[in-house]
Specification:
Elements lengths: L11 E5 L16 H15 L3 E5 L19 H8 L4 E3 L6 H5 L6 E4 L6 H4 L12 H20 L4 E4 L24 E3 L1 H14 L6 E5 L8 H7 L5 E4 L4 H7 L3 E2 L9 H14 L2 E4 L2 E5 L8 E5 L2 E2 L4 E5 L1 H12 L3 E5 L12 H15 L3 E4 L2 H9 L8 E2 L3 H8 L5 H7 L1
Helix pairs in contact: 8-9, 10-11
Bound molecules: adenosine monophosphate (AMP).
Adenosine monophosphate (AMP) binds next to strand 14.
Length: 415
């Protein structure tokens, strides 16, 4: 079922959203992006004459009631965003009566799902090494099903709009879907957009396809790099991982960040790219600094000839040109991870060059997807957020999807 086809009139919809918003010490929301992200779905259901039961997690209370993670703190903000009063259920697993009393157009927000260990479904208070762990895990899986069934009993249909947790097989993100038939469960608008964005770079690829992977380490990106290797035309590997590649090739990298146990892996990636005809673009020059701070002395040098005591902190001018050349002609672009320590203004030029090239390519008709916290922060820092095609809201979920993994939250609905 799709959210546009479903007839919500007179129905109660239980909607999993990601309202895990950052709060300050006074319990005030410091960034409401996630609430705004869910509004199209929530408003659509209300406008169509449905009643809403909204559920989410907040923070990591680890299966216990922890006041600072109470969703009660955001009731007023949700109410203001929806433009209608929001009722609150103090206990998400004991909300049957409140849910039953809901009328069309009314909204009930459930307390933090993760106050119950059943939400995540991991046994608590028992070590993985403990011989009784497997039994405890089985028992927890059984009570997770009961918990999901209780949540499901509140509503006629289930909508999942929490992309940020779509890579988790939790009670509210996946298990609950077993208690609704295919005609009564669907993805929300945000999830639909995220799934479409991933399809655009993994399935419906317009060529040439350029992927830019940056950030600090190759080890955390290897799954994605390997999955993309079969799909991309150009692969730019930048940021801190540059120096693992430079060292693997026999270069001198000073005190640059380097994963010494990944040198073989770096050589293997170079060989794979060659074998698969992928144009691998590595940073040939860099901005090196004599300290890890914005005011450090800098010099431009080859990425494989960095003087002793200096470290590569950004892509050099030659590399920036090579990156831009591989990006500007592309028709599909994926960017994850900065090209340097962009948090310091003096080391942001490489990341800025990438953001500008992506904006230009997008102006020329390319599809561009930006995902993963830091590259999103980059496009925001350079004021280019509205010049790219799509900015993903889901860090871990997006990365797992691009690695080619099936997301349990999506599979539970789409099969
Ligand atoms: P990741 O979480 O792996 O995507 O890495 C993001 C972080 O990588 C950012 O905080 C950047 O400051 C950092 N980074 C990028 N380039 C470098 C570099 N050359 N040396 C150290 N850190 C870097």
């Amino acid at each position: 079922m799709t959210i546009n086809d479903y007839k919500f009139a007179g129905k109660k919809a239980i909607v999993r959203v990601d309202f895990n918003v950052p709060l300050n010490e006074n319990g005030q929301i410091t960034d409401d992006t996630r609430i705004r992200g869910a509004l199209p779905t929530l408003k659509h259901i209300l406008e169509e004459g449905g009643a809403l039961i909204i559920m989410s997690h907040m923070g990591k209370p680890k299966g216990k009631v922890v006041a600072k993670y109470s969703l009660k703190q955001i009731v007023d903000a949700v109410s203001a965003a929806l433009g209608t009063p929001v009722q609150f259920a103090e206990d998400c697993a004991k909300a049957a009566e409140q849910a039953a009393a809901l009328k069309a157009g009314e909204v009930l927000l459930l307390e933090n799902l993760r106050y119950y260990p059943e939400e995540e479904g991991k046994p608590v208070g028992i070590d993985k090494e403990d011989p009784a762990y497997e039994e405890a895990k089985k028992a927890m899986k059984a009570s997770q099903k009961e918990f999901a069934k209780t949540l499901a009993s509140y509503a006629d249909c289930y909508v999942n709009d929490a992309f940020g947790t779509a890579h988790r097989k939790h009670a509210s993100t996946a298990v609950i879907a077993d208690y609704f038939d295919a005609d009564n469960k669907m993805l929300g608008y945000l999830m639909e957009k995220e799934v479409e964005a991933v399809d655009n770079i993994l399935k419906n690829i317009k060529r040439p396809f350029t992927a830019i992977m940056g950030g600090s380490k190759v080890s955390t990106k290897i799954g994605i790099i390997e999955n993309l290797m079969d799909k991309v035309d150009n692969l730019i590997l930048c940021g801190g991982m540059t120096y693992t590649f430079a060292k693997a090739n026999g270069g001198e990298i000073g005190k640059s960040i380097c994963e010494n146990d990944k040198l073989e892996l770096a050589l293997d990636i170079i060989a794979q790219a060659k074998a698969k005809g992928v144009n691998l673009v590595l940073a040939t020059d860099c901005v090196a600094a004599d300290d890890f701070c914005n005011e450090a002395n800098t010099q431009v040098c080859p990425s494989n000839a960095i003087p002793e005591g200096w470290e590569g902190v950004d892509a050099g001018p030659e590399s920036r040109k090579a990156f831009a050349a591989a990006i500007e002609g592309a028709k599909t672009i994926l960017w994850n991870g900065p090209a340097g320590v962009f948090e310091f203004d003096n080391f942001a030029a490489g990341s800025k060059a990438i953001a500008e090239a992506i904006a230009t390519a997008t102006d020329n008709g390319a599809y561009s997807l930006i995902g993963g916290g830091d590259s999103v922060a980059c496009v925001n820092k350079f004021g280019m957020a509205d010049r790219v095609s799509y900015i993903s809201t889901g860090g871990g979920a997006l990365l797992e999807a691009i690695e080619g993994k099936v997301l349990p939250g999506v599979a539970a609905i789409k099969g």
